[in-house]
Amino acid sequence: MLPIKPHIWFGQDKAKEAAEFYASLLPDSALTYVNHFAMPGGGECETVEFTMAGQPFLGISAGPGLNISPAISFMINFDPSRNPDAAKHIDDVWNKLLPNGKVMMPLDRYPFSERYGWISDKYGVSWQLILTNPAGEERPVIVPSLLYTGGVAGKANEAIEFYCSIFKDGKRGTTAPRPEDMGPDKADTLMFADFYINHTWLAAMDSAHPHGFGFNDAVSLLVTCETQEEIDYYWSALTDDGQPGQCGWLKDKYGVSWQVASTVMFEALKHGSPEQIARVTQTFMTMKKVDVAVLQQAYNG
Hints:
About 25% of the residues lie in helices and about 35% in strands. It is an alpha+beta fold and about 300 residues long.
């Protein structure tokens, strides 16, 4: 299995611009590819792949963008044990994210970190920057973070167990429950936890405060499969008490959006001719759960 890729839906014609911006922020980052294909009924879809500090992302612009929710944000770990200039670099990256962005928690000292801030950038994507010096198993620089709010506040621990039961390499990392009731947040709900699934570290937190946002399709988690057996398995497991959608998209029972996709689709986008891309994408858009054989047939012509 390939690592989980966050998939971000940007505003009109913003995917490439955003990807180039993110690739400029951190070492080991790059714009991998850009492609375009026609949408049913007219218009064009722009897709991009990029990496930040080794973490792969996908982006899309296809008509008006969805409102990107801070319910899925991206933690950037600045670790002085690995980088002596981490304290300087956290300020540098913050200052690049700040123009036309929205500060959700100021970059400052907090009980859990000497330097931390939470910001939504000019494209609406949320980032948590933290100066950290973790003990134990090393974490990657970028960690997607899920905030369970509203009707699913208090469900983060249950969700972690659910995800770890689905993915064969699933395991828990750090778990920090609240020791007592803290305002609307109840004892034993998660202040923070992280977990490992599909070669990817993710984090999860609960918040019963009235944030006014929750999970939506603007940021989804992409599971790329090589076989129909894998697609059938993950589609069935993740839609359990959830909601299947179109083109491999689904919502799980906590409202988190996932995509269960085939490597054939991305092989076409990266290496296919314009005719192959057109055949594959037009075929793909008629599907709910992805059919690998049909996609491969479209690719082969």
